[in-house]
Amino acid sequence: MSGATPPVLHRLRDLIDADRDGFAQKVFARFFGNSPELRDLFPAHMSHVREAFVDVLDHVLDVLPGDSGHEELIELLAQLGRDHRKYGVTDAHYNQMAQALVTESARLLGTEWNTESAETVAQGMLLTTGVMRGAAQTVEGPATWRARVVQKFTINRERAVIRLVAVDPMPPFHSGQYLETQIPQWPHVWRNLSPAIPPNDAGELEFHVRAVPGGAFSAAVVAETAPGDVWTFAQSHGRLRIDRDRPVLMVAGGTGLAPLRALLLEMARRADTPPTHLFYGARFPGELYDLAMLRELATTNPWLTLTGVVEEPTDPWWISGAVDPSQWGVSIARGKVGDVAARYADWSDRQVLIAGPPDMVISTKLRLRLAGVPSDRMHHDPVAQH
Question: What pTM was computed for the model?
Answer without folding.
Answer: 0.84
